[in-house]
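Lay summary. Proteins are chains of building blocks that fold into shapes, and those shapes determine what they do. In this project we predict the shape from the chain. Here is one chain we studied, written as its sequence of building blocks.
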Amino acid sequence: MLARAPGPAHTGAMKIWIVHAFTDRVFAGNPAAVVPLERWLPDATLQAIATENKLSETAFVAPTGLRGNYQLRWFTPTTEVPICGHATLAAGAVLLSELALGLEVVVFDTHAGALIVRQTPEGYTLDLPRKQRSPWTPPDELARALGVDDFADAFVGEYANVVLDSEAQLQALKPDFAAIAAIVTGPRQGCLVVTAPADEGKPYDFVSRFFAPGAGVDEDPVTGSAFADLAPYWCDRFDMESVVGFQASKRGGYMRAIQTLASVRLLGQVAVYLRGELDPAIARLHNRATEGPEPVRRKRRRARAAQALPPIFDDPMLPGLEPAASGAAGGEAHRSPTSHPAPPEGGELQPPRIVVTK
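And here is the predicted shape, written in a compact code that computers can read:
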């Protein structure tokens, strides 16, 4: 579970956390950035921060004024998305364990509806909406894009889902991401879940991989919103109340899931990789992310020949300034007022007078 940090719950600074979700250790699971805000910044600034983070998701959280209730939005490096499970779990863990101590539940108002994160002795639970499952006949081009001959099953929920016969078949996929982005047109453009039953003797019930080139992420490490599609499918297929899934990405991640009448409840852990602070100047950006720099303003130097000199320069020479020798062009030059006068001619310099005091 996420360790509680000492010190005040809120300092007013613009903080950032990088949290590895659906894992109990760093360098595994799915990394998400969490940026709590006092108020919303312009969308262009939010997108610029997410692009700079280069993580599959950056979650931005802002208070609503009600205790335990927050607004939540998710950005990939290229676009805002309507739902993200692992970043929601990460945001809830940061609030419950570091920023809103004393709460056991937080409710997020999102584009996908109200999402609830609870703190438990085993980790954190996340309630995601349960989408109705509909049969789907994928095009033949999709099988070729994945490098398989056929699919055992296919359906549509939050995403397009295809089912393979074995875990080994899923592990051996060599997807053509450009083809997936073009072939999968709904319900989420260029987003595809691939799943299969686990091999005998494994500590999980099913495996999955998630490809999202349409959202700027070729393969997501661990996808909570995809598990909201998969858990009801495998619960029904295995006739089980709860299932454990493993997302077989390079980083990998586990979660347990149960289905209710209207939602899918995921149980997972998190590990904090980084706690930091963004430069305060970022909060002052106002939709300038796509603007170029302002042109430099330079004053043009006026030509001396076209400008009449003020009368003061026509006055006689100031007293005490001697005329200098004629210049090379024959004109008479004046000694600079900052130059030292020549010593007087004739006479000897008197030595300085020394006064001795007792």
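What the prediction tells us: The mean pLDDT is 84.
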